[in-house]
Amino acid sequence: MYLTDYRALLIDCDEVLVDRDSGIWTALQPLLENRLGTLGKEEVLAEFNDAVHTLYPRFSELGFSGLLCFAHRQLAERFGLKASWEEGMSFARSVGNWSLFEDAPGAMLYLRKFYRLLVYCDRDAEDREQLCERLGIVPEDLFSRASKPLEDSAWLLANNLEPKDILQVSGPPDEPPESAGLCLICRGHGNYTHQCPADFCIKSMADLVAQHQLSLRR
Q1: DSSP state of 14
Q2: Bridge partners, residue 166, by sequence
Q3: Across-strand partners of 182?
Q4: Mean pLDDT over all residues of the chain?
Q5: How would you classify residue 185: left for phi > 0, otherwise alpha for psi between -120 and 50, otherwise beta?
């Protein structure tokens, strides 16, 4: 299929539209400055992501801020650091300061001319409205990852969509959905595109726009 064959895009928010890793790294600096020795960004983020993965089964209980707060505490324990719950919650509330990738606003503005734009994003209720404004989407088009709209037959019917009409836009290493298309945005992943399992593998949202323009000319 071509990019122009899809009617909707289901876009991952973090690491596709929002620079989550840079936001996490910046917000962790007050904790890390108390540790002797230097920790690399990749090492710290790998440990943090492992903590989040461990806690994710409790997402419905903790919420997004709670998940980040507990992950902050677990990271502190792994590195032998002390962190108060107040520091953990301050870290969790930094989510509102995570910046968009430079190409994201322009790409969203362009792509909404051709697609229904849906966004996958775990956020607490108090953060969703601000995020929707930044992304230029309506609140009903922002989905938590647990909602799985591609498997929700009632939602698909109500929106006159089928999974084959939808292209999921994610960062690696997502596996292709069963019935929808998959486009991997491989920001900073070097030669990942050479081994890409997806329908489309590109480097950025700006590149997605460029590839769409090429599809229009086919």
Answers
A1: B
A2: 8
A3: 168
A4: 91
A5: beta
Give the integer Cα–Cα distance in Å for 52 and 144. 16
Residue range 103-143, pLDDT digits in tens: 999 999 999 999 999 999 999 999 999 999 999 999 999 99
Residue 123 DSSP label: -
Instruction: Please provide the DSSP assignment of 158-203 as one string.
Output: HTT--GGGEEEEE-TTPPPPSSSEEEEE-TT-GGGGGG--SSEEES
pLDDT at residue 38, as a whole number: 73
Of the candidates 81, 86, 18, which has an alpha carbon nearest to the alpha carbon of residue 48? 81
Where do the domains of the chain lie, and which CATH numbers do they carry? 3-18+99-216 (3.40.50.1000), 20-97 (1.10.150.750)
Residue 61 pLDDT > 90: yes
**How many angstroms from the chain centroid is the CA of residue 33?**
27
Which tokens in the block code for residue 97?
Answer: 């300061």
Helix, strand or coil for residue 97?
A: helix
d(CA 102, CA 112): 17
Helices (H), the chain: 20-32, 41-55, 59-78, 85-92, 104-111, 125-135, 153-158, 205-216
Its pTM stands at 0.90
